[in-house]
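seq:
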Amino acid sequence: MTIAATPQAASMKGVPFVLFGIFVFTIQDVIIKWMSGNYPVHEIVFVRNLVAILPVMVLVYLEGGWSLLKTRRPWPHVVRAVGMFLSYLSFYLGIAAMPLADAVALFFVAPLLITALSVPFLGEQVGLRRWIAVIVGLGGVVVMLRPGGGVVEPAGLLMIFSALSYAVVVIITRRIAATEKASTMALYACYAYVLLGGLIGALIGDGRFLAAAGDHASLAFMLRAWQMPSLMDFGLMVVLAFITAIGFYCLSQAYRQSEASMVAPFEYIAIPLATLWGYLFWDQLPDRVALAGMAMIVGSGLYVLKREARRGRRVATARSLRPKL
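struct:
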């Protein structure tokens, strides 16, 4: 005898996937921060995604075969892939110079930016309460950047740029998701990482500009010369490649099996995980000011997700009640 799953149980099926996906992505952040003192970011990105192409191609095959790679919308793929490259490049540069928990918390302003950008680019309606939440969340960003001290940490600005680039990527993804598979978009992004990472390496990968970096970890991570990785470090780069494939697969499965309103709040587990890894590996903990800014960003993000979920249910109900002609 079998018992049918309740709607609540069915909606929870994606939660283990999102939790594991976020967990492996925070491990990726630890590895990249750990390696940032020895290699340039574009070398790590190049090697990681060159290796990641193979497992992502396997995902493409499992989702429907090579015919999925044919698209009548190449330019959105190009813009999306470049946006992802800029987002993750600036994120990696940021975590090289600032505590991991602070960096991840600043990046989570992205859902608020997505809400703001959805108005002009997707024509979505955003009510007064969500706009207030966006403003409060951006206020949390200002708190964490601490402009009152006279100097804004450039690495913090990198995280904001990363979040903004990611928000643009999500907007583009929403517009093409109906006709494009997640694995296809991931593969095109891998191609962009390899191409752009290799191009940057060819232009500045000899390290001739490293002296200009001074003591700033982010600039040094960008301008350091390429070098042959040790066997252990190359193994870590390979691990990064498989983490990328596994993480994207888990997040894709999470959003396929559950409503976004159920899954998205669990992505915020990245902040306590980043805090834990920062303490264990670098003895770094957020101070009171950082915690206040984090609370403003996380609280606003969760509120926006809750309001969007309610709006989605109202729209779905209205559609179901339309007279059938």
